[in-house]
Amino acid sequence: MTLSRGQITRLILATFLLGLLLFVYLPRLFYTYSINAAVSARTVQIVAPIPGEITFDLPLFGQEVKKGQEIASFSNPTVDKVKLEQLSIDQKYYKERITASETEIKKNQELFDDLAKSWKTYLGSMEQRTILTLNKAEDRQQQLLASLDMAWRDYNRKKDLADRGFVSRSEFDTSKSRYQEAQEAVDQAENDIRTYLSQVEAIRQGVSVNTDGRSDYPGQKQKMDDIQMKINDISSRIDEYKVKLTNIADVKKAEEARITLLANRKVKSPVNGAIWRLFSAKGTFVEQNTPIMEILDCSNVFVDVALPERLFEKIKPGQKAYIKLNGSSTEVEGEISYVRGGSIDPRVAGLMVGLPNVQRQREIQVLVKFNEESLKQVPGDFCHVGRTGQVRFQGL
Question: What is the pLDDT averaged over residues 19-24?
């Protein structure tokens, strides 16, 4: 059968229309599409950490910033430094007291050394005198021993004669008395020698003794002891000053760190993103916690999708989705962050930009988070916030 030209034309047109319908509607038999998706992102507000003047050129509107990049600096010349100044005064005072105390110890030590030298000389001369006296006592002892021997011989001879009646009783008693006196003298001499020996030993130990053997405590020695006690007392005060200096140094270090934080502070970007709003400029004085800028958090970029409410039970956080922005030929992978019915929570919406202004009834709100690495493959400003596109949900 031969077709006419008109039939061929109608057949071609019908085939084209059928192909077009299949191209448009066939994918929707396997996928769910949203054609009114809008890109939104969370914003991070940057506030002044201290009251002060902005001394750093702030990034320009739309300028991309990296996490950790310095974006602002502040200087506050009115920081209260009274406590730090008082600590410095106290530190200087105790250092001066330590220096003065060390000088005082040095002078007292010199005086003590002079007295110790004189005391040593005094003990040396006392030892020599005592040894000389000891030598005399030993010589006298030898003489007394000789006298004792003679008295003992005379006593024995007179006793023998008295027993035989050749001498009178009075002569014998006289001889006996001389012998006893000689023995007592020898005993006393031995006691004196022992006393002198103990005196020499005591002197060599640094103890002064009188001629009668009792210990002596002369004024020179008393003065030496007083000086030593004074040196010990000053040394204790120096130790106390050093402890106080250590404590002051620790407090001063903490105070200096506090003043440094209050006097100068740099602010770094907490996220990778772009400058969305600027509220101040270099040279402006701001109070603490005053907002100075807002940054789009490009690590938290979402596609806001409106879907029919009948799909609410089928959409689950964590499912994959595929985003294609209008004007782009690249499809970017994302992940469903959360699903809400009706209007989004105003508290959450307040932290986002680029959300659609109007939502139709019987729709659900689906936020699909961009994969940050995949998003970088699509060039654009402000992390593509405000752009529209379509999102493909597989398996719905």
Answer: 55
What token pair was written down for 323? 């985003």
Burial 315-343 (b: 16+ CB within 10 A, else e): beeebebbbbbeebeebbebebbbbeeee
- The first and second tokens of residue 190, run together, are 């031995």
Q: Domain 84-243 carries which CATH code?
A: 1.10.287
Contact between 321 and 304 under an 8 Å Cβ cutoff? The reply is: no
HSE (side-chain half, CA atoms, 13 Å) at 63? 13
How many Å apart are CA 153 and CA 160, to the nearest integer?
Answer: 11
Q: What is the mean pLDDT of the chain?
A: 81
Note the pLDDT tens digit of each residue in 83-98. Answer: 999 999 999 999 999 9
Supply the CATH classification number for the domain 29-69+271-394: 2.40.30.170
Predicted TM-score of the model (pTM): 0.54
Residue with tokens 């057949």: 11
- Residues 360 and 363: their CA atoms lie apart, in Å, by 6
Residue 246 burial (10 A CB sphere; 0-12, 13-18, 19+): exposed
Query: Taking residues 6-10, what's their average pLDDT?
Result: 69
Contacts of residue 237, defined as CB under 8 A and 6 or more positions apart, other chains included, come to 97, 101
The domain segmentation of the chain, as residue ranges, is 29-69+271-394, 84-243
Tally the C-alpha atoms within 13 A of residue 283's C-alpha that lie toward its C-beta. Answer: 0
